[in-house]
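so ive been stuck on this for like two days lol. basically i have the seq below and the ligand is adenosine-5'-triphosphate, smiles is in there too. i just want the complex predicted, nothing fancy, no docking runs or whatever. if the output looks off dont worry ill sanity check it later, just need somthing to start from for the group meeting slides
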Amino acid sequence: MNHAAGLPTATAAPPRPLLDVDGVSLEYKTPGRRVRATHRVGFQVHESDRYILLGPSGCGKSTLLKSVAGFIAPTEGVIRLDGNAVREPGPDRIVVFQEFDQLPPWKTVRENVAFPLLASRKFKRREADARALHYLDKVGLSAFADAYPHTLSGGMKQRVAIARALAMQPRILLMDEPFAALDALTRRKMQEELLALWEEVRFTLLFVTHSIEEALLVGNRILLLSPHPGRVRAELNAHQYGMHSAGSPAFQATTQRIHDLLFDLPTPEEPASDRHLATARRAAA
Ligand SMILES: Nc1ncnc2c1ncn2[C@@H]1O[C@H](COP(=O)(O)OP(=O)(O)OP(=O)(O)O)[C@@H](O)[C@H]1O
Ligand SMILES: [Mg+2]
Protein backbone atom coordinates (compact mmCIF):
# COMPACT_ATOMS: atom_id res chain seq x y z
CA MET A 1 0.00 0.00 0.00
CA ASN A 2 1.08 3.54 -0.65
CA HIS A 3 0.23 4.79 2.83
CA ALA A 4 0.83 8.44 2.03
CA ALA A 5 -1.80 8.51 -0.69
CA GLY A 6 -3.88 5.62 0.68
CA LEU A 7 -3.62 3.98 -2.75
CA PRO A 8 -2.31 0.56 -3.68
CA THR A 9 1.16 0.74 -5.24
CA ALA A 10 1.53 -0.90 -8.60
CA THR A 11 3.62 -4.04 -8.16
CA ALA A 12 6.30 -4.14 -10.83
CA ALA A 13 5.98 -7.16 -13.10
CA PRO A 14 9.13 -9.28 -13.02
CA PRO A 15 11.26 -8.40 -16.05
CA ARG A 16 10.86 -10.82 -18.95
CA PRO A 17 13.95 -12.98 -19.31
CA LEU A 18 16.02 -12.48 -22.42
CA LEU A 19 16.31 -16.24 -22.83
CA ASP A 20 13.74 -18.67 -21.50
CA VAL A 21 14.56 -22.38 -21.74
CA ASP A 22 11.33 -24.05 -20.71
CA GLY A 23 11.15 -27.81 -20.02
CA VAL A 24 13.52 -28.70 -22.82
CA SER A 25 14.28 -32.31 -23.70
CA LEU A 26 16.77 -32.96 -26.47
CA GLU A 27 17.42 -36.19 -28.33
CA TYR A 28 19.69 -37.58 -31.00
CA LYS A 29 18.36 -40.21 -33.36
CA THR A 30 21.03 -42.75 -34.17
CA PRO A 31 20.44 -45.86 -36.29
CA GLY A 32 18.36 -48.17 -34.13
CA ARG A 33 17.98 -45.94 -31.05
CA ARG A 34 17.38 -42.50 -29.59
CA VAL A 35 19.86 -40.89 -27.24
CA ARG A 36 18.26 -38.53 -24.74
CA ALA A 37 20.78 -35.75 -24.07
CA THR A 38 18.69 -33.58 -21.69
CA HIS A 39 15.47 -34.16 -19.80
CA ARG A 40 13.06 -31.24 -19.18
CA VAL A 41 15.72 -28.66 -18.48
CA GLY A 42 14.52 -25.18 -17.59
CA PHE A 43 16.37 -21.93 -16.84
CA GLN A 44 16.15 -18.23 -17.56
CA VAL A 45 18.89 -15.83 -18.60
CA HIS A 46 18.44 -12.09 -18.09
CA GLU A 47 20.07 -9.19 -19.89
CA SER A 48 23.80 -8.89 -18.99
CA ASP A 49 23.86 -12.21 -17.14
CA ARG A 50 26.95 -14.37 -17.32
CA TYR A 51 25.05 -17.62 -17.11
CA ILE A 52 26.95 -20.89 -16.78
CA LEU A 53 25.91 -24.42 -17.73
CA LEU A 54 28.02 -26.70 -15.56
CA GLY A 55 27.99 -30.48 -15.49
CA PRO A 56 29.97 -33.63 -16.15
CA SER A 57 30.97 -34.80 -19.60
CA GLY A 58 28.00 -36.11 -21.58
CA CYS A 59 25.29 -34.30 -19.55
CA GLY A 60 24.13 -32.38 -22.61
CA LYS A 61 25.74 -28.94 -22.18
CA SER A 62 26.87 -28.63 -25.79
CA THR A 63 23.57 -30.02 -27.02
CA LEU A 64 21.68 -27.40 -24.99
CA LEU A 65 23.88 -24.64 -26.37
CA LYS A 66 23.35 -25.88 -29.94
CA SER A 67 19.63 -25.92 -29.30
CA VAL A 68 19.68 -22.30 -28.05
CA ALA A 69 21.70 -21.49 -31.18
CA GLY A 70 18.87 -23.02 -33.23
CA PHE A 71 20.72 -26.04 -34.64
CA ILE A 72 18.76 -28.71 -32.74
CA ALA A 73 15.00 -28.57 -32.11
CA PRO A 74 13.67 -29.69 -28.69
CA THR A 75 11.56 -32.87 -28.65
CA GLU A 76 9.76 -31.39 -25.64
CA GLY A 77 9.51 -27.84 -24.30
CA VAL A 78 10.39 -24.55 -25.92
CA ILE A 79 13.26 -22.05 -26.08
CA ARG A 80 12.29 -18.38 -26.30
CA LEU A 81 14.50 -15.41 -27.03
CA ASP A 82 12.85 -12.07 -26.29
CA GLY A 83 9.57 -13.98 -26.06
CA ASN A 84 9.86 -15.54 -29.54
CA ALA A 85 10.33 -19.28 -30.00
CA VAL A 86 13.76 -20.16 -31.38
CA ARG A 87 13.35 -22.19 -34.57
CA GLU A 88 16.57 -21.69 -36.50
CA PRO A 89 20.02 -20.12 -36.20
CA GLY A 90 20.15 -16.34 -36.34
CA PRO A 91 22.56 -13.41 -35.95
CA ASP A 92 21.07 -12.67 -32.52
CA ARG A 93 22.84 -15.81 -31.16
CA ILE A 94 26.50 -16.31 -32.00
CA VAL A 95 28.54 -19.30 -30.83
CA VAL A 96 32.23 -19.41 -29.91
CA PHE A 97 33.50 -23.00 -29.81
CA GLN A 98 36.45 -24.66 -28.12
CA GLU A 99 38.33 -25.51 -31.30
CA PHE A 100 41.05 -23.23 -32.61
CA ASP A 101 40.11 -23.92 -36.23
CA GLN A 102 36.97 -21.77 -36.26
CA LEU A 103 38.63 -19.17 -38.47
CA PRO A 104 38.92 -19.72 -42.23
CA PRO A 105 42.72 -19.79 -42.72
CA TRP A 106 42.67 -17.99 -46.08
CA LYS A 107 41.24 -14.80 -44.56
CA THR A 108 43.26 -12.34 -42.49
CA VAL A 109 42.22 -11.66 -38.91
CA ARG A 110 40.38 -8.48 -39.96
CA GLU A 111 38.66 -10.26 -42.87
CA ASN A 112 37.60 -13.04 -40.52
CA VAL A 113 35.93 -10.57 -38.15
CA ALA A 114 34.41 -8.51 -40.98
CA PHE A 115 33.08 -11.49 -42.94
CA PRO A 116 29.83 -12.17 -40.99
CA LEU A 117 29.11 -8.42 -40.98
CA LEU A 118 29.37 -8.35 -44.77
CA ALA A 119 27.42 -11.59 -45.11
CA SER A 120 24.59 -10.04 -43.07
CA ARG A 121 24.33 -7.35 -45.83
CA LYS A 122 23.79 -4.72 -43.16
CA PHE A 123 27.24 -3.21 -43.63
CA LYS A 124 29.28 -1.85 -46.51
CA ARG A 125 32.91 -2.94 -46.66
CA ARG A 126 34.28 0.22 -45.03
CA GLU A 127 31.80 0.05 -42.15
CA ALA A 128 32.46 -3.66 -41.67
CA ASP A 129 36.23 -3.07 -41.63
CA ALA A 130 35.90 -0.22 -39.13
CA ARG A 131 33.72 -2.30 -36.85
CA ALA A 132 36.09 -5.29 -37.16
CA LEU A 133 39.03 -3.09 -36.13
CA HIS A 134 37.01 -1.66 -33.23
CA TYR A 135 36.37 -5.12 -31.78
CA LEU A 136 39.89 -6.36 -32.53
CA ASP A 137 41.10 -3.41 -30.49
CA LYS A 138 38.82 -4.50 -27.62
CA VAL A 139 40.50 -7.93 -27.53
CA GLY A 140 43.97 -6.40 -27.86
CA LEU A 141 44.69 -7.61 -31.39
CA SER A 142 44.77 -4.42 -33.50
CA ALA A 143 48.41 -5.10 -34.36
CA PHE A 144 47.48 -8.49 -35.85
CA ALA A 145 44.63 -7.30 -38.10
CA ASP A 146 46.50 -8.26 -41.26
CA ALA A 147 47.97 -11.51 -39.95
CA TYR A 148 46.67 -14.94 -41.00
CA PRO A 149 45.21 -17.27 -38.35
CA HIS A 150 47.99 -19.89 -38.64
CA THR A 151 50.50 -17.31 -37.35
CA LEU A 152 48.53 -16.82 -34.09
CA SER A 153 48.62 -18.73 -30.80
CA GLY A 154 45.55 -20.66 -29.60
CA GLY A 155 44.65 -17.87 -27.16
CA MET A 156 44.93 -15.24 -29.90
CA LYS A 157 42.69 -17.28 -32.22
CA GLN A 158 40.08 -17.48 -29.46
CA ARG A 159 40.31 -13.68 -29.04
CA VAL A 160 39.64 -13.29 -32.78
CA ALA A 161 36.64 -15.63 -32.49
CA ILE A 162 35.33 -13.54 -29.55
CA ALA A 163 35.87 -10.27 -31.48
CA ARG A 164 34.07 -11.74 -34.49
CA ALA A 165 31.13 -12.79 -32.32
CA LEU A 166 30.87 -9.48 -30.43
CA ALA A 167 31.15 -7.45 -33.65
CA MET A 168 27.79 -8.95 -34.66
CA GLN A 169 26.33 -7.50 -31.44
CA PRO A 170 24.25 -10.61 -30.74
CA ARG A 171 21.47 -10.58 -28.16
CA ILE A 172 23.33 -13.41 -26.47
CA LEU A 173 26.87 -14.74 -26.85
CA LEU A 174 27.09 -18.53 -26.60
CA MET A 175 30.44 -20.04 -25.57
CA ASP A 176 31.15 -23.77 -25.47
CA GLU A 177 34.26 -24.41 -23.35
CA PRO A 178 36.11 -21.68 -25.27
CA PHE A 179 39.24 -21.88 -23.11
CA ALA A 180 39.36 -25.62 -22.42
CA ALA A 181 42.12 -26.32 -24.94
CA LEU A 182 44.45 -23.63 -23.56
CA ASP A 183 47.22 -24.08 -21.02
CA ALA A 184 46.32 -23.15 -17.43
CA LEU A 185 48.00 -19.73 -17.41
CA THR A 186 46.56 -18.63 -20.75
CA ARG A 187 43.17 -19.93 -19.69
CA ARG A 188 43.22 -17.80 -16.54
CA LYS A 189 44.31 -14.75 -18.56
CA MET A 190 41.48 -15.32 -21.05
CA GLN A 191 38.94 -15.59 -18.22
CA GLU A 192 40.22 -12.27 -16.84
CA GLU A 193 40.03 -10.65 -20.26
CA LEU A 194 36.52 -11.95 -20.85
CA LEU A 195 35.40 -10.38 -17.56
CA ALA A 196 37.11 -7.08 -18.42
CA LEU A 197 35.39 -7.13 -21.81
CA TRP A 198 32.07 -7.83 -20.12
CA GLU A 199 32.61 -4.86 -17.76
CA GLU A 200 33.07 -2.69 -20.83
CA VAL A 201 30.44 -4.07 -23.23
CA ARG A 202 27.93 -5.73 -20.82
CA PHE A 203 26.92 -8.42 -23.30
CA THR A 204 24.75 -11.36 -22.22
CA LEU A 205 26.67 -14.61 -21.98
CA LEU A 206 25.67 -18.27 -21.90
CA PHE A 207 28.87 -20.18 -21.12
CA VAL A 208 29.42 -23.93 -20.99
CA THR A 209 32.14 -25.49 -18.86
CA HIS A 210 32.83 -28.58 -16.82
CA SER A 211 35.29 -26.71 -14.60
CA ILE A 212 33.74 -25.69 -11.26
CA GLU A 213 36.45 -23.07 -10.78
CA GLU A 214 35.86 -21.53 -14.21
CA ALA A 215 32.11 -21.47 -13.53
CA LEU A 216 32.62 -19.53 -10.28
CA LEU A 217 35.13 -17.12 -11.81
CA VAL A 218 33.27 -16.33 -15.02
CA GLY A 219 29.62 -16.61 -14.02
CA ASN A 220 27.07 -14.69 -12.01
CA ARG A 221 24.57 -17.60 -12.12
CA ILE A 222 25.32 -21.29 -12.44
CA LEU A 223 23.01 -24.10 -13.54
CA LEU A 224 24.19 -27.49 -12.34
CA LEU A 225 23.24 -30.41 -14.55
CA SER A 226 23.21 -34.04 -13.46
CA PRO A 227 24.91 -36.75 -15.53
CA HIS A 228 23.42 -38.17 -18.69
CA PRO A 229 20.68 -37.35 -19.52
CA GLY A 230 21.14 -33.83 -18.15
CA ARG A 231 18.54 -32.64 -15.66
CA VAL A 232 18.60 -29.54 -13.52
CA ARG A 233 20.36 -30.41 -10.26
CA ALA A 234 20.46 -26.90 -8.77
CA GLU A 235 20.87 -23.23 -9.62
CA LEU A 236 23.34 -21.05 -7.73
CA ASN A 237 24.44 -17.45 -7.49
CA ALA A 238 28.11 -16.82 -8.20
CA HIS A 239 28.27 -13.03 -8.53
CA GLN A 240 30.18 -12.78 -5.25
CA TYR A 241 33.17 -14.60 -6.77
CA GLY A 242 35.72 -13.22 -9.21
CA MET A 243 39.41 -13.22 -9.96
CA HIS A 244 40.07 -11.53 -6.61
CA SER A 245 38.46 -14.36 -4.63
CA ALA A 246 39.89 -17.40 -6.44
CA GLY A 247 41.31 -19.75 -3.84
CA SER A 248 39.76 -17.97 -0.82
CA PRO A 249 38.16 -20.17 1.89
CA ALA A 250 34.64 -19.16 0.79
CA PHE A 251 35.51 -19.94 -2.82
CA GLN A 252 36.88 -23.33 -1.86
CA ALA A 253 33.85 -24.14 0.29
CA THR A 254 31.51 -23.32 -2.61
CA THR A 255 33.66 -25.39 -4.97
CA GLN A 256 33.30 -28.33 -2.60
CA ARG A 257 29.54 -27.79 -2.28
CA ILE A 258 29.11 -27.76 -6.04
CA HIS A 259 31.26 -30.86 -6.34
CA ASP A 260 29.05 -32.64 -3.80
CA LEU A 261 25.88 -31.51 -5.56
CA LEU A 262 27.19 -32.68 -8.93
CA PHE A 263 28.12 -36.08 -7.59
CA ASP A 264 25.04 -36.31 -5.36
CA LEU A 265 27.00 -36.44 -2.10
CA PRO A 266 25.35 -35.07 1.04
CA THR A 267 26.44 -31.48 1.69
CA PRO A 268 26.97 -30.05 5.22
CA GLU A 269 23.65 -28.16 5.04
CA GLU A 270 21.89 -31.18 3.61
CA PRO A 271 22.04 -34.33 5.81
CA ALA A 272 21.84 -37.67 4.00
CA SER A 273 18.28 -38.26 5.25
CA ASP A 274 17.10 -35.04 3.57
CA ARG A 275 19.02 -35.63 0.39
CA HIS A 276 16.40 -37.39 -1.70
CA LEU A 277 13.74 -34.97 -0.61
CA ALA A 278 16.01 -32.06 -1.54
CA THR A 279 16.82 -33.66 -4.89
CA ALA A 280 13.13 -34.15 -5.61
CA ARG A 281 12.41 -30.55 -4.57
CA ARG A 282 15.11 -29.24 -6.86
CA ALA A 283 13.89 -31.38 -9.76
CA ALA A 284 10.36 -30.09 -9.26
CA ALA A 285 11.46 -26.45 -8.91
N1 LIG B 1 25.79 -36.34 -32.84
C1 LIG B 1 25.41 -37.14 -31.83
N2 LIG B 1 24.75 -38.30 -32.07
C2 LIG B 1 24.35 -39.10 -31.07
N3 LIG B 1 24.54 -38.82 -29.76
C3 LIG B 1 25.18 -37.68 -29.45
C4 LIG B 1 25.64 -36.78 -30.46
N4 LIG B 1 26.25 -35.73 -29.86
C5 LIG B 1 26.16 -35.96 -28.53
N5 LIG B 1 25.52 -37.13 -28.29
C6 LIG B 1 25.22 -37.70 -26.97
O1 LIG B 1 24.40 -36.78 -26.25
C7 LIG B 1 24.81 -36.69 -24.90
C8 LIG B 1 25.16 -35.26 -24.57
O2 LIG B 1 26.29 -34.84 -25.34
P1 LIG B 1 26.93 -33.39 -25.21
O3 LIG B 1 28.01 -33.31 -26.23
O4 LIG B 1 25.86 -32.37 -25.28
O5 LIG B 1 27.55 -33.43 -23.74
P2 LIG B 1 28.47 -32.36 -23.00
O6 LIG B 1 27.84 -32.10 -21.68
O7 LIG B 1 28.71 -31.18 -23.88
O8 LIG B 1 29.82 -33.18 -22.77
P3 LIG B 1 31.36 -32.65 -22.79
O9 LIG B 1 31.60 -32.00 -21.45
O10 LIG B 1 32.14 -33.94 -22.91
O11 LIG B 1 31.54 -31.74 -23.94
C9 LIG B 1 25.99 -37.66 -24.76
O12 LIG B 1 25.51 -38.86 -24.23
C10 LIG B 1 26.47 -37.88 -26.16
O13 LIG B 1 27.01 -39.16 -26.32
MG1 LIG C 1 30.42 -30.39 -24.78
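Residues 1-5, 270-285 have pLDDT under 50 and may be disordered. The helical segments are 61-69, 109-119, 125-138, 154-167, 184-201, 212-218, 249-262, 272-284.
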